[in-house]
Amino acid sequence: xIRAHTIRLNPTPEQESLFxxxxxxxxxxxxxxxxxxxxxxxxxxxxxxHRSLRDAFKQIRAAExxxxxxxxxxxxDDAFVNLGRAIKNFVDSRTGRRKGKxxxxxxxxxxxxxxxxxxxxxxxxxxxGHTLTVQKVGALNMTESLRFVGKILGATIRYxxxxxxxxxxxxxxxxxxxxxxPAIGVDLGIKSxxxxxxxxxxxxxxxxxxxxxxxxxxxxxxxxxxKGSANRRKAVLKLAxxxxxxxxxxxxxxxxxxxxxxxxxxxxxxxxxxxxxxxKNHKLAQAISDVGFAEFRRxxxxxxxxxxxxxxxxxxxxxxxxxxxxxxxxxxxxTLAMREWDCPNPDCRAHLDRDLNAAWNxxxxxxxxxxx
Length: 372
Ligand SMILES: [Zn+2]
Known about the structure:
Blueprint: E1 2-10, H1 13-43, H2 50-64, H3 73-95, E2 117-121, E3 125-128, E4 131-134, E5 138-142, E6 151-160, E7 163-171, E8 183-188, E9 192-196, E10 201-203, H4 206-224, H5 230-264, E11 267-271, H6 275-278, H7 282-291, H8 293-307, E12 310-314, E13 340-342, E14 351-353, H9 354-370
Parallel strand pairs: 8-11, 11-12
Antiparallel strand pairs: 1-5, 1-7, 2-6, 3-4, 4-5, 6-7, 8-9, 9-10, 13-14
Helix pairs in contact: 1-2, 1-3, 2-3, 4-5, 5-8
Zinc ion binds at residues 324, 326-327, 329, 343, 345, 348, 350.
C-alpha cells in the first residue's frame, strides 16, 4: 500500500533559490505543453498526447531553452504527466466519465499563485532521520522524520503559505489484521459535524469560526493595500498563512475523527454525498463544504485497509434521514428544520434524535450491502 507523508522543510536561501528554479521549470514545461495543445485545437489538428509533447520538448530543449534548470529530468517529465492528467480530467468530466464537480479546461500556471511544485524521482533523493538529501540541492533539514518504513517511490516539493514542503510517497509492506470491531454508521450533519450510530456526537469546531473571522479581516487588509507594493506582498503572505491555518485545523479535526472510526469499527457506513447536487440546498452545502466531505471519505478509505476495516458508501438515493429505523416507515415530509424523528406510524411512534436515526439506517444499510 502507498502512503504519503508531508513534512515542512528548512532550506537555506541557496537551496530555496534552487527550489524556485525547479518549480519554475516545471511550470514552464506545463505551460509550453498547454500552449501546444491550444494551438492544435485552434488549428483543428490532432491534439498531441503528453508523451509526444514531452519527447518534442526534449528535442528542442537544448537549442531553444538552454537556460532551463533541471533538478533531474523527473521535474520536467512530471510536468507533462500533470498536464496529461489535467486534460484527461477535463475530457472525462465533459463526457460524464468523471463524476462530481465539472472540471474546466486547464489554464496556464502563473507565478502569482505561489512558486508551485516539482517532482523528484526516488533515485535523486535519500532520507535519513531529519535529513533529506536531494541531488544538486544537497542535504537539508526536515521538521519531522519520515513516518513510514518502506521503499520511497518519489516526492513532490511544494511551496505553500510561505514554506517549502515535501510530500514523500512510500510503498509500505503491510498485511492488515483482522478487525473485530462492530459496524458503525456515520451521519454528517449541520448542527454537529458527525453523529455515529454509537450515539457519539462530534461537535462542529467553534475555533474555525474565529479563524475564519481573521481570514476575512486579512482579506480586507490586502484589498486596502496598493497593488504591487511591498506592504501588499506582506499582507498577502499573512493571509495565505491564515488560510493555511484554517485548512490545518479542519484537517486535524477530520484526521482525529477518521482515525477513531477506523480503529473502532470493522465496517463503516457513510453516505455517498453528491456535493455538487447538494449545493442547491444552501444550508447543507455550507456545513459539508466546511468540513470537506471528499477529504473525510478519502481519509477513511486510505486508513481503513491499514487496520483491516472497510468503508461502504451508501447510494445517495437511500433515504437515511426520512426512514424510521424502528419500523421502516418513510416520512417524505421531513424538513431540515425538524431535528427530532417522530415516527408517523401509529403502531411505532418512535421518538429519536434525527441524526442518530439516520446513523442507524446508514449502519444497517452498510451491513446489508457488505453482506455481513
Ligand atoms: Zn417507526
